Amino acid sequence: MSETETDAPAAGVVSLPTARRCPLDPPEEYGRIRKAGAPARVALPGGGQGWLFTRYEDVRAVLADPRFSSRTHGVAPAGDGGPARVPPGMFILMDPPEHTRYRRLLNGGFSARRIRKLMPRIEQIVEERLAAMAATGGGPVDVVREFALPIPSLVVCELLGVPYEDVAEFQRTSSTLLSLEDDAEVDAARDEVCAFIHRLVVAKRARPADDLLSELITAPDAQPPLTDEELVGMGTLLLVAGHESTASMLALGLLTLLEHPERLAALRDDPDRAERVVDELLRYLTVFQFGMFRTAAEDVETAGVRIRQGETVIASLAAANRDPERFAGPDAFDPGRRRSTHLSFGHGVHQCVGLQLARAELTIALRALVRRFPGLELAVPVQELKFREGAVVYGVEELPVRW
Description:
Layout (H helix, E strand, L loop, with lengths): L12 E3 L12 H9 L3 E4 L5 E5 L2 H9 L3 E2 L28 H10 L4 H23 L6 E2 H6 L1 H11 L6 H13 L3 H24 L5 H7 L9 H32 L1 H9 L4 H12 L6 E5 L3 E3 L2 E3 L4 E4 L1 H4 L34 H18 L4 E2 L21 E3 L1
Parallel strand pairs: 1-2, 3-9
Antiparallel strand pairs: 2-3, 4-6, 5-11, 6-9, 7-8, 10-11
Helix pairs in contact: 4-6, 4-14, 6-7, 6-10, 7-8, 8-10, 10-12, 10-14, 12-14
């Protein structure tokens, strides 16, 4: 080990940062840790200690390094004391080659061609939500409940092939799952969502249609064919991962624009700016706030520290996306900056499979919202808004607006 390498930073163990001075900025503690240079020893939420990486290059390296396994927190232990058991279909908790098998089957479902095919439906969903908002006569309207949550929910319905008559049930169960905090109620809501998706899988096996679930069921490359349990696991992941993060980004993205009226006016005057605005919002906000958890599959020396086999590593996407060594003026919301290679969708083999869909939803929705309501403003002082600082996906509980 070199003189610059240590088993733990001299500063000792710190808590995983959650407190924010400004609701649109990550915790200031990330900046202090990043400036210190080496990864920090942190106390993990569930007990024990881990390593927190905050510099852009270090975070990117960790996410690309196969020595850091995705078989990590939240995985049930095997009954015989062997390796952790991952629930069927939960590919985000798997490493290659298991992970590769599932991702390959999903690639077609999130291809550029599939996204282009979905665009008219996304636009229709957005216009329907805008019409519902307009019917109130000028607000106040909670953007989270009436706009941000319904749009990704309905888009997922379209993607998975949820029948029209079942959309209301799907929205109810998924919204319940995303809004609850009590562990027992979360488990109950998750069971209900899984049961709903299982019924959908059974129906698709009997009568396949032109949707992602049907494609997964009938995929000729799925050898062996996917089981019902695998399909339910994959469907649940697509719902939770895409739904919550996109909804949070829509609400927080609008709040960011309202807090930067000159940027809002520029988007309203030139809707072609929308894609660049969305890209900068993704970097600036980074709603997946704690980062990506990994487990060292072997002893690893990286970024000046030695990480032992079995230790937990947290790669902070939010801190990496505000690294001044990578982004000029990182704390400024600047849609005019050159398109950045931010890490909001992760990096490496686990980079978000739905990133193109998320970009399309955000671009269409925000562009249409500011066009439809040019006088949009907050209906309450920003100091009265409540934020989810302790949630995996950061967001605002309610966002009342008027116009």
